Each structure stands twice: as C-alpha cells, then as structure tokens.
User: What shape does this take?
Amino acid sequence: MSGMQFGIFTVGDVTPDPLTGVAPSEAERIRAMVAIAKKAEEVGLDVFATGEHHNPPFVPSSPTTLLGYIAAQTERLILSTSTTLITTNDPVKIAEDFSMLQHLAAGRVDLMLGRGNTGPVYPWFGQDIRAAIPLTVEHYGLLRRLWREKVVDWSGQYRTPLQGFTLAPQPLDGVPPFVWHGSIRTPEVAEIAAYYGDGFFANHIFWPPSHTRRMVRLYRERFEHYGHGSGDQAIVGLGGHVFMRPNSQDAVAEFRPYFDNAPVYGHGPSLEDFAAQTPLTVGSPQQVIDRTLGFRDYAGDYQRQFFLVDHAGLPLKTVLDQLDLLGEQVLPVLRKEFQVGRPKHVPDAPTHESLVRAKTADAKPSGIQPTVQEQQS
Amino acid sequence: MTKLTVISGGLRQPSSTRLLADRITEAVEAELAKFNITASSSTIELRPLGRAIIDAMLIGFANAELESAFETVANADGLIAVTPAFNVSYSGLFKSFFDVLPQETLSDMPVLIAATGGTERHSLVLEHALRPMFSYLHAIVAPTGVYAATNDFGAQDGSVGLTERISKAANDFARLLHACGTRTRRDVFTEDLAEMERLLAAAPRPGEDGTVED
Assistant: This one.
C-alpha cells in the first residue's frame, strides 16, 4: 500500500433502526462489527478502527479483544482504535494489550489516543475529568517509555509507581505501534501530537471544516517547531461521514430518517444544512469522491482517511452495501487522484513495515538510508 | 471609539424589549459623549437566531449567522442585555443564547442589564436572575439595571419615571465603560495551547529515551 490509507471507524453504538424501532442486541451489534471489518478488507480498505466506550448504548469496551478476533480472520487489514482512552486506561495495560495484539496480528496494528468526554467514566476508573489534560500528558509519557525502555522505573501523580518493570511481550520487532492523537475540538491534542512527532487525526465530522483547517494548521506548524520535519511532512488523518446510493436522490431519501433521529446530531439542523456545514456527504459515489478530494484544500496532503458508515441504527446489510460502493467506485479513484500532485517529500502513511525499515536504517551508523522512493514502493 | 453590543430578547414586533434596548443605547451613547467618547452600537435580535441557537445547543457548533453574532459580542467593549421577564426569570431563548456563547466571551465585559415585564412585580428579575448569570460569566455587571413594566410606557404618576431611571443607569454604565477602557479579548485557544506547552515541557523530551523519532 502506498501513499494514503483508507479505512472505516466505528463508534460501536447500539441504536434502534428508526424505521422499525428495533435495536440490535449487543451480541448482534458485536457480530456486525466483525462482519463490517471483514468486509472492509474484502473491498480493499486498509484500516478498521473501533471506538472504546464504557457505558451503554455502546458495546466496544474491550477493543483489543475485538481487534484480536478480527485479526485472526483477516490478512491485510490494519487494526486500530478511534479512540483508546489514555486518561482512564492504565498505560501499563495499554502497552501490554497492544503489544500482544501486535504479535498476534503480525504488526497490523496502530492506535489512536483520545481523552474521552464522558464525565462519569473517569471516576469509574478512579480518575477525575478535570485533570484530563495533565493525566493525558503523564499517562502518554509513561506509555512511550514502556514501549521503548527495557526496564522502567517511574513515578507520577496519577498512577502507582513502577520499580524495575519490564513489559511483556516487548513490542514486535522492537517497534511500538504507531500512535495517532485524535482530536474533536481542542488545540492541546494537536500540541501533544506535534511534540512527539506522532500522527494527528482530526475527527473532522460533525464540525465545520474551518475548525479542522485551524487544528491541522496548528499541528503542522508545531510539528515543524519541534523539529520533526517540515509542516507538510507531518502525519495527518481525517474522518469522513458518508451515505451513498448510485442516485443521489435515493441516498438522501433513504438516509433522512436515520439522519433525523441520529444520536449526536439528530433533531437539530436539516440534513441539507448539516451536509453544507460539515463534511457529511449524502449522495452518489461521485459526490463522495469530489467532496473527499476537496479535504486536501484545507488539510494539505495527508496520510489517512476514515469514513463513518455504520451508525444511527443503519441495518448491517445497508452498511455492507456502503462498503461495496466505497470499494468498487470510490476507493480506486481516491487512491489515484490523491497521488496527483503529491510532493515526493510528503511521507506515506506509517505502517509497521515502514517503521521497522526506518529503525533498521537508523541503527546502521553508515548504512543506506531509505530513500523517499523506497518508502513509497 | 467604544463598541457597544446590544442584545434584545424581545419576541414580538414591535417589541417593548427592543424599545427599551434602543432607549438605553441612546442614553448610554449620550452619556459617553460627555466623556468625549464616541460610541458605535450593534443590536442583535435573538428571535431570528432562535433555530440556530437550539441547533447549536444540540450539535455543539454555531452556524454562520450565529457565529457572526458571537463575534459581535466578543468584539464589544460593553454589552447591553435586555430580556422580557418570563415566569420569574429571563426568557428561555435569552438564557439559551448565553448557554451556547463560547466560554469566556464575556470575561471582563462591562454589562448593563435590563428587562421588561407586564407589571412592576417582576422587577427583581434583574437582581435574582440576570445579575447572578452575568457574574457567573465573569462579566462586570453595572450596579444599576433598568426594569420597565408595561405601565412605565404610559402615564407617570409620582414614581420615578422610566426616562430618569434609564438616565441614571446609562450614567453609571458610561462611567464604568470609561473606567474599563478598550477591552482586550481573551483568546482561550492560545491560553489552552500555552498551558499544554508548559505541561509537555515538564514531560520527557522526545528522543531523550535513546530511540529515534521516525
């Protein structure tokens, strides 16, 4: 895979289908997530990412369990998260779970960190939402050390100290999973991603593009400021929100009841107003292509594009249809068109293989550095 | 030049709330003139923003029209806020506008509070509802507000007339604006970023752990 990665991200909500009033059982929803992930690989998508939630009506409380199960039934798909809660999870457990998953999935793993904005979840895990930002900084600092140092002595404010701790299993090939930092609205996330030279994922959907433009610009500036490369070499991902049918009128008619009743944005603005104000695209595959290619105008050349396709009670069959359309009609055009005019110095989306290559190259004092061309192959 | 923004929560046309807002604005401008301060005013009617305010509450961001109203408030040196009194408080729409207004927009903003109502019985709405809300929002609330009952727009019999009360409030507010001067707008985005920079500076430096950051 070269250049950009395309994938889907799911919230894992159990929402009644507004047409029938019937919600899937938790078991049905979990099995549907697996079916959706397998379909994503089948239609040629690169990444499947699951949310993490600890309260109904959501099911994915244990993302690496789900991703491990999917890893066993896929061969090529990268398994990721959207997001892994760096605040309420113990960083030691995150390090262990994702190291284990890396080994099982032969490196097809990365993760996106987020803070989580559900107040009560924090106390359930012994934390306080008011400390979310210092907690993020401290937990992530520890997570990085656990993945990079053989023996860790550590003490901090929010977790019991560690003396002589060694992570098992160690990261596959000595390379930690690539880390994205997911942001909906706050500049702090862009700053931490830039500071460490990690990826920055702007959720993008449900908000006006002007907001994403500002966040991505900030991240690129700060990435350069911290000396990781030029701003256009920073690693950017964006969300997308689509519903397609071959005829755009059919897409609008079919999606409207789901839109009108959706959690998050339902019962608010009309579908038309919301689609005009946010990246939501309801229409033909060509409309999705045009809109998505336009993201470059304000985000620059970027590395990862996710789509949200399975929410608001859409039936599994409808979601699988969406993935067919994505794979057959949208993806080939996006892969080709996003490469047009993409400067050679803009990095490809990171993979386990590219990180291993970079590590090997850096380990040889006078060894051959991988060229941009090699990285793109 | 002092920039005044006026919020009118009146619902009908013509609206006595808007009428009161306009009279207060004129009086404040006249009082400012005594300090040789010229003032410009922009009035925001909440009724046309009703849908946008509820949408913003539901989806978390403002449409272009509401965003522009927020900018008008944020860029002001002083605010005149006038609501009808509904059920012993400000109107729900008036409150909702301030519920979706971005945090710290009113920080250090001089505010003159005013309300209209059917009878004089509701006049304490200024002290029991508006003043605490604006104090909570970190505004500098002028000590004298203006309450106008329907009767105030008719014959005045012995009580201090509405015109005098407006003049008194306008005089107090003008002195407050004069003392506060041009307002510096708070930039929460930059403040948050600076705080994160400080936190990260105390964290391990990238690369210090001996690995290469590619």
